[in-house]
Amino acid sequence: MTAQQTIAQPPADTRSMTGAQVVLQALLDQGVEVIFGYPGGAVLPLYDALFQQKTIHHVLVRHEQAAVHAAEGYARSTGKVGVVLVTSGPGATNTVTGLTDALMDSVPVVCLTGQVPTHMIGNDAFQEADTVGITRPCTKHNYLVKKPEDLARIVHEAFHVASSGRPGPVVVDLPKNILMGEAPYAEKEAGRRRTYNPRREPDPARIEEAVRLLARAERPIFYVGGGVINSGPLACALLTELVRATGYPITLTLMGLGAFPAGDPQYLGMLGMHGTYEANMAMHDCDVMVCIGARFDDRVTGRLDGFSPGSRKIHVDIDPSSINKNVPVDIAIVGDAERSLEAMLEAWKRVAPTVDRARIAPWWDQIERWRAVDSLRFRQSGTAIKPQYAIKRLYELTRDREPFITTDVGQHQMWAAQHFRFEKPRRWLTSGGLGTMGYGFPAALGVQMAHPDALVINISGDASWVMNMQEMSTAMQHRLPVKVFLVNNGYMGMVRQWQDFFHGSRRAESYMDSMPDFVKLAEAFGAVGLRATTPAELDEVIERMLATDGLVLADIVVEEVENVYPMIPGGAAHNEIKLSPEDDGGHEPISEDGMVLV
Amino acid sequence: MNIEDEEKRHTIVVLVDNEAGVLARVIGLFSGRGYNIDSLTVAEVDPVRRLSRINIVTTGTELVIEQIKALLSKLVPVHRVQDLTIEGPHVERELALVKVNGDRERLIQALRIADFMHARLVDSTPGSLVFEVTGSSDELDAFISLVEPVEVSRAGVVAIGRGEMILDGTAQDDG
Ligand SMILES: Cc1ncc(C[n+]2csc(CCOP(=O)(O)OP(=O)(O)O)c2C)c(N)n1
Question: From the alpha carbon of A512, which atom of ligand 1 is closest?
Fold first, then answer.
């Protein structure tokens, strides 16, 4: 610990630290540079301690949900732990959506919540909430600090638990008397716990078995998810090397985009409900599937009994509870993606000379025929901007700057996933598991905090964006030059699409009436607002957005009722994918089993 | 029905750090995912290291049981998870307090059954008797159905592996 990193006066006797100082010192020792938070009575001692130091930068959000999403953006774009600080009661309950989002998408976040003093817990005190009770199911772990001597250890342990194994959110609930009273400090090592040792090293015998199976495959495919990105850049590099060494095709999940370079000819695009035709057909027809850091989510598998019926499956995951959860697999490998990929690559190099490369040629021929269908095609015609076209142009005009892209949830999210092509990991941030509208803008603020000079774009929809638009104020205060690319179709587009497909086009409550003038709205916050309404204006608006310093909101008014294709309807299998409205003469009646799915 | 779809009863024991909220985590894991708990017992078994042992009886398909064990192992305060139904020979015992009310004749009848089924009389008033009975869950069921009690209190299953099989918190934990 350096002198400048020490809180207040270097305490000769550590007993003289307050709980608040202990928390802050623990944060410093954990290397925390940024906190996203919002003050209130129960955490005032911590805010007071923050006020008296210069190392940690506090970003004041406008709603606690946004603090968690911003911390997620920070964490996912850097690989570090995102830190949140909120008050008791409503401050804590407002974080629940963000915490659940971080749990579903395995994002390391430590959320410090204030709590009423220990002697008042259970009394329905002012701004008391059972925070550990409420957040138990939406965190990886949580703590209520009841004794000063536990405080430092718990804060360190929280960082260890959040960032190791399968990452996730951890809540530390801090009663005010613990923060105000004296507490002893403990070093980082105190946060190791004997009961918690996630397995990182894969079983070498299983790796051998997996590689032997891979070497014999005739129709292999790699199916890779966000776990590889979480494992780190080295894991992504090893993945790329392994995939190229084998010459096999690879598809990525929504969370995995960027784990393998999209420009590589072996890449088949995203799979799943709105994935490419070639990716989904290859998943269906493969004979050996290697799943790494993905979890056979229902958006990926479609109908389970129709999911890749003829394949042997290898599953590599750091979380043993992800294996055999939805889909039984033949070879299960519990371990860190980086270590597992390293071992697989090594084993592959040993068998490579004996592998007959010609045997997969017919498989590639088949894949190329699927690819030739060009399932992401669309036509920009007429006077309205097609949303796909808007996103494609944004991609083409920004790709050289390797932007960070965050999205909200809906059609724009799927079009962004389809038309943006990521060459590197950690550039793509979207709410995958929970599908949280309102995620994108605060997440973009977190990314920009971590990467002040990078181009950070939030691709959003009109309905999603208004869910956290108050964060314009945060962006202005902290001079975060995020670019918001609002794909404005006047509807909750994805809801409207499902209503048109599955509910007789009865568009119940999906039209966004009485929306603000987004240009004026941006201006009201002191930001720059731009608007494009015709294809001819689009490029110029994008160029101006990129050329403008500071926060920009570009209102891209698009075709109202465009639908996302391809689509595997709920309850259907991969080979029942619909490519366009003309497929099967319009909207398929969906099976009853499919109707109940979300 | 596939073999994999068949539901089976499993007795699972879990060694945990005895800390606030640990039971809520275990129960929440079952209730949050719709798994069954047929019986659950918990008590501290190592006061020095502050370890508690939780005995859970649950029913589920093979995949569900595998999930349950993986999820239990993932909980931060959990040291060890052992599926006694799979891992080996073990004994299971349950205790119940069983109250029988009625006239003299009925009570004498109950005493006879108790004698022959090794239940112990632990309380008596002129109109009622309370028996303590221990044994396998089936033995308890049998006793209860015979004496037709007015009230029953059951402790739930406790279980332990036979012979060499020992569950303690000292082994290298992983999971
Ligand atoms: C917080 C939240 N509420 C509701 C939903 C359900 N939902 C999914 S997509 C969607 C519509 C999103 O509309 P918009 O942001 O305009 O995007 P578009 O689909 O039009 O691109 C809704 C309401 C959700 N995902 N998240």
Answer: 16
Do A130 and A261 reside in the same domain of the chain? no
Q: List CB contacts (< 8 A) between A158 and chain B.
A: none
CA–centroid distance for A241 within its chain: 24
Tally of domains within chain A: 3
Chain B 32-51, CB below 8 Å of chain A: which residues? 32
Is domain B3-87 annotated with CATH 3.40.190.150? no
* A133–chain B Cβ distance below 8 A for any pair: yes
Same domain, A68 and A131: yes
CATH, residue A406: 3.40.50.970
> What class is the B91-159 domain?
alpha beta
* Whether A82 and A44 share a structural domain: yes
Residues 73-112 of B with CB under 8 A from A: 73-79
Measure A51 CA to ligand 1 centroid, in angstroms: 38
**Phi, psi (5° rounding) for residue B148?**
50, 70
pLDDT on residue A67: 99
pLDDT digits (tens, 9 = 90+) for A483-532: 999 999 999 999 999 999 999 999 999 999 999 999 999 999 999 999 99
Among residues A453, A449, A441, A452, the alpha carbon closest in space to that of A405 is found at: A441
Cα distance between residue A244 and residue A261, in whole Å: 11
Residue extents of the structural domains in chain B:
3-87, 91-159
Q: How far is CA A451 from CA A394, A403, A456, in A?
A: 20, 11, 9
| ipTM for the whole predicted complex goes beyond 0.85 | yes
pLDDT digits (tens, 9 = 90+) for A531-543: 999 999 999 999 9
Which tens digits make up the pLDDT trace of B103-118?
999 999 999 999 999 9
DSSP E strands in A440-479: the ranges are 456-461
